[in-house]
Amino acid sequence: MKHICLNINNKNYELVVKEDEMLSYTLRERLLLKGTKTGCDQGSCGACTVWVDNVPVLSCITLTLNVIGKKITTIEGISELQEGSKLQELFVKHGAIQCGFCTPGMIMTALAFVKENPKCSIDQIKESISGNLCRCTGYKKIIDAIAEYANIKREKNAQIVSLSKKENQNLKIIGKPEPYIEAEKKAKGTADYADDYVFKNTLYCKFLRSPYPHALIKSIDYSEALKIDGVKYIAIGNELKETFGVLPISQDETAMAIEKVRYVGEIVAAVAAESEEIAEHALQFIKVEYEQLPAFLSIEDSLSETSTFIHPFSEKYKCNIHKTAEIRIGDRENTLKKSDILKSMEVTFEGINHGFTEPHACTAWYDENGLSIVTATQVPHYLHRALSKVLHIPLHKIRVIKPYVGGGFGGKSDPFPHEIIASYIAIKTKRPVKVRLSREEVFLTNHGRHPSKIKITIGANNDGQIKHIGGEMYIDGGAYGSFGVVTTYYNGSLLQGPYKTEYYGYKSTRVYTNKPQCGAMRGHGGVNPRFVAECVIDEIAHELKMDPIEFRLKNLLPPNTTTLGEFRITSNGLKEALHAVMEQSKWKERYGKLPFGHGLGVACSWYISGSLLPIIWNEYPQSVVHLKLDFDGRILLTSGASDIGQGTNTILPMMAAEILGIDKEHIQVVMADTLLTPVDLGSYSSRVTFMAGNATIEAAKKMKDEILKCIAIRKDIPKENLNILENRIIDNKGNIICSWQEAVDIALANRGAISISGWYISPKLGGKYKGAGAGLSPSYSFGAVVAEVKVNPDSGEYKVLNIWGAHDCGKAINPLAVEGQLEGSWHMGLGQAMSEQMKYHNGYLLTNNFLDYKIPTSLDTPDIHTNIIESIDPEGPFGGKECGEGALHPSIPAVANAIFNAVGVRINSLPITFEKVYDAIQKNQTIKLQQI
Amino acid sequence: MIIDFFYPHSLNQVLEIIQTNPDAKFIAGGTDLIPNFKQKNVKASAFIDVKSIPELTKIVETNEEVSIGAALTLYEIEKSEVVKKYFEILIGSAKSIASPVIRKSATIGGNVLCENRCVFYNQSEWWRESIGNCLKCNGDICIATGGKKNCFSKHSSDLSPALLVCNAKVKIVNKKGIQLLDLEKIYSGDGIKPHYLNNDDLVVSFHLPKIKRKFFYFKLRQRESIDFSSLTIAMSYENNSKTLRIALGSVDPKPILWIYSKNSEQTFEDFVKTNIKKVRIVDNDYYSREYRKNILLKKIHSAYSQIL
Fold first, then answer.
1. Nearest-by-CA chain A residue for B294
2. CA distance to partner chain B, nearest, from residue A290 (Å)
3. Is the per-residue pLDDT at B20 higher than 90?
4. Which residues from A are below 8 Å from B130, CB to CB?
5. Residue B34: pLDDT above 90?
6. CA–CA dist A272, A232 (Å, integer)
7. Which residue in chain A has the smallest CA separation from B126?
8. How far apart are CA A787 and CA A604, in angstroms?
């Protein structure tokens, strides 16, 4: 250890550090300067950026001893600089902050750059932040903020297209762009994420992970490890025998492996010790004897007949199938015959990881209130249930707290082994136990998009009307179930829209394999089949010599209709979405007229605003919101709704304020704490705005009614003649009856604080056939994307130049947030289209870090042109529907279709790497040569 | 591993320290060294910071040559007027490395000496032990080639191909004295120990003769920032001697240097065909060896017509 002095943010610190310690560790762990974040530990994400002598530096790969005698500045110090706080304000104003985890690093990089290059251009700004990854924003608003800071005028590249002629909701708050209520904290680095919490007397927990994809555990001997000074507890699998899983019908996981391991990286043992270092060190003294089993590493492997099963429930299939789903509606044979043109395509998809910048982390503790855990989660409610089940603790003695979360996208929407293990050891040791996963461990935790093989056949007549949509799909689920059963259905069920068809049918199969399990990821199982369907439609349009947009317009399902599978569609703005992107991209003037190598492509899709049916069948509502009003005139809004960067904590108070007629400043939130807040099922399937929003509106209406009832009695005015407007009670002539505070005093007289509950229960909808509920939703979003690409036919290299996207989200409650979510969705789709893949070698994950797993940087991201379509849904809160997942679907096939338009090749596997484009062009040319 | 950290201010101090700490490693920006150190692919008893040694941080122009200190950052190279004037390929090459923030710490010396890479080598200690350590990690076989007894890890510097086509020499100092070698001489071609340098050899500067050349540079990677190269091509053409120099990176355990004279009887096509057979490209990259080879050939041939 070395005794050193460091100068940080103009303050001198004297401390003791290890010689091989990184600056990020020193800042965060020794000095508790938690604003600097660690996302990847290898210098490939930029989250840890600080300044050393005013030069931006990656602190996770900088030795602390290397910066002695230098001036260090962190995000905490930036806030005190005038230029720093100005840039932070602009980030907040432009909506450049969603989950906020990349924000401190991004600001450090941007501020240093503009200081050095005051006369910079947009392109230079884009380049300057290309080492800072953002998974939420698509970089667009970040560049907007930096541009304004550099005094560059940038036209706003987003618009709202309202379909309702008489949008007379007369809204005062809803529909106005609002920075997130916590955006300033995130900009300043003072928002606490799971790893930022510090508890006294904490133990640190590290995991021993399986080195084999499939093996029996013959013995575990941890006696030597237990002797190490500072080791306090070692846990192994059979101490936690209860299975769990997010779906009640698919609870096939245990916290640690019992009897056998099912993937490389599965947790076999856990060590809790006084420091991370001791825990890590102790792992090598745990002796595990394995007997390897045949490993199933691909869909083909798992479909082959065998007597070795990854899970015993596959025995009935005689191979390693987990689940099959089959739905066929309409006349399959007849529609095939009726189709003048029939096109099929089979596409192979690699697995995709969520890529959020914040690794999982949690701290659990046990006291007189029972078990508590603060954890990076999207689903406090499901974790609450899982902890109770596995640990045999009553539900009423468990508290799950969601802090600020650095992105989820479905990767934090399951109860996790590390959460259960930390909780268990906290109970055993009576000390807080902390876990944080390394980036490699985050990849091994996975739960990402399933690798898939999907074949889709579409038939149409010569007039371009779709008659038949059929699919056969196989998805590679990895070692456990997660959301996989639902994914299996979603891979087919969303094929019944957004186009009319006379037949839709599919057979979908999920297999188990010996790899980290797959689960829900943004857009869920609908993304991959949508890609294939949109490419096949493109093929049909091409053969019929029809414009692909015209073809789609011809086939759109209208609003207020029911699909073949009995999904009820209410509002539907897809036609307007297509028109918006068609006009903006100058499609009519350019499509088919661009030179070889330059192309445009289009795709559409649709998505659920929350699954109508809950995962767990009971009589509870799907979302409950409580409002409490007390003497101080403040309304506390509590809900289990989980803000993971999509802005829930901002829009729910907006909705309440709108209904109540008071300003937002009177409403504050406490959210996602299972002790304090009523249940909301969680942030997945894009349900929160719709369901928690409706619950909020109901609660606010009831609260308003209750207040006015009291005023009516006290002031002897009929309740119908009273309203609340701009913090005042007024009558129907506009006379002010009393102030908000006076109204509060009247309403609370003789009883004190009022608590009101509002809830949302989905209407009864849908068919009665098996699987009818998968994909069923109270309303659907619709979207379209046009992509423009340039391809170099000699090498296959290509660049996406522009993305025009339009998304019908019903009503943009907070346009700033909606734009951000859409831009982030389109950007995430681009990643899957161009460069992201989880690649394995014999079951060992090769792409387990942010260097090898390639999320698009700012330089890889094209200009994004955003269109919000407002169709004002009859059941959505203020007409609102989802905007968190649906926009991702069309961006991927739009790129593939643009490449086809540019160079005439169809790539039938994702990602579309330069190599695949090159090979396809070569093959094409060879065929052409042969034909000559 | 207990580490010490030294901050010498002169070459003599450096040489003294490395004598008494033979397992120490020289460090400048550390942007390649530290990630490898964290993954336990590199071990060191101490680090010796060489950023404050004057000989390593100067650009000196004489009548015949330009010398570039090894501890100059890639950012400083990008901004240097002298480099831009005579060796603009170095600017293009430096700008293509990593990301802008990393380039403010990464140095030309560090890049030229950056460790060879392979998807099976650049992994955590746990990962490598689980799959079975490969040759480069003291194991028995090369995993990337499915069992060969040689290591095919890729030379991954982008600046070294650019320097090679500028005819660069490298100045190395150790306790025995100073050496000035042709840059290509320090590369062994052995994936396990890619440099002929001993632990106490300090790379001080690069010396480039001021010869007027035309340049071509190409780097293949999927993303436009952060990523290491999958194929780097540097070319220079000197009109008086009609000499074409081609240097290739990320396709072999060492940078490949070809020298072709336009006066030669052999056609360029033949020359390339013969020499490419010796390039040991294997499947240890994001792209397949076939693709990298195909693109290599295409780019070289199209650059040849351009540059001449």
1. A795
2. 12
3. yes
4. 210-212, 264, 844
5. yes
6. 6
7. A211
8. 12
With CA atoms as reference, report the closest residue to A323 among A931, A774, A732: A774
Q: Position B191: which residue type?
A: G
Q: What are the chain B neighbours of A210 within 8 Å (beta carbons)?
A: 130
Secondary structure tally for chain A: helices H, strands E = 25, 37
**Shortest alpha-carbon distance between residue A360 and chain B (Å):** 19
Q: In this model, does residue A540 exceed pLDDT 60?
A: yes
pTM of the shown model: 0.97
Strand A466-476 and strand A287-292: pairing? unpaired
Order across the sheet with B214-220: list the strands.
B214-220, B231-238, B243-249, B256-261
For residue A815, give the 3-state DSSP assignment.
helix
Q: Which of residues 26-85 of B touch A (CB under 8 A)?
A: 27, 30-31, 34-35, 37-39, 47, 49
Distance CA A502, CA B22 (A): 78
The whole-number average pLDDT for the span B229-257 is 97
Q: Output the furthest CA–CA distance in chain A (Å, rounded).
A: 94
**CB burial readout B105-124, b (16+ within 10 A) else e:** bbbbbbbbbbbbbbbbbbbb
Query: Can you tell me which residue has the tokens 């660690």?
Result: A38
Q: Residue A606 region, left (φ>0) first, then alpha (ψ -120 to 50), else beta?
A: beta
C-alpha–C-alpha distance, residues A137 and A142, integer Å: 8
Eight-state DSSP code of residue A764:
P
pLDDT for residue A163: 87
- What does the pLDDT read at residue A191? 98
For A741-752, give one letter per residue: b (16+ CB within 10 A) or e. Answer: eebbebbbeeee
What's CA A200's distance to the chain center, in Å? 32
DSSP per-residue codes, A200-230: TT-EEEEEEE-SSSSEEEEEEE-HHHHTSTT
> What's the Rg (C-alpha) of chain B?
19
ipTM above 0.95, yes or no: yes
Q: Output the pLDDT for position A167.
A: 63
How far is A494 from chain B, CA to nearest CA, in Å? 32
Average pLDDT score, chain B: 95
Between chains, do B222 and A913 touch, taking CB under 8 Å as contact? yes
Q: Give the model confidence (pLDDT) of A231-245 as tens digits.
A: 999 999 999 999 999
Among chain B residues, the shortest Cα distance to A51 is held by B101
The helix (run of H) or strand (run of E) holding residue A339 is none
pLDDT in tens, A468-478: 999 999 999 99
Which pLDDT value is given to residue A168?
65
**Mean pLDDT throughout A743-753?**
98
| Residue A423 φ/ψ, nearest 5 degrees | -65, -45
CB of B223 within 8 Å of a chain A CB? The answer is yes
Cα(B102)–Cα(B32) distance, rounded to whole angstroms? 10
For residue range A294-328, list pLDDT tens digits in order. 999 999 999 999 999 999 999 999 999 999 999 99
User: Residue A100 pLDDT more than 80?
Assistant: yes
Q: What percentage of chain B's residues is helix, strand, coil (to nearest 5)?
A: 30, 25, 45
Beta bridge partners of A235: A270
- The secondary structure of residue A644, as a DSSP letter, is S
| B180-194 b/e (C-beta count within 10 Å ≥ 16 → b) | eeebbebbeebbbeb
Render pLDDT for A609-654 as a digit per residue (tens, 0 to 9). 999 999 999 999 999 999 999 999 999 999 999 999 999 999 999 9
Chain A touched by B125 (CB under 8 Å) = no
Residue range B205-231: average pLDDT? 97
CA atoms of A696 and A760, how far apart (whole Å): 9
> Tokens 């949302």 sit at which residue?
A760
Other Cβ atoms closer than 10 A to A32: 9
Residue A185 has pLDDT above 80, yes or no: yes
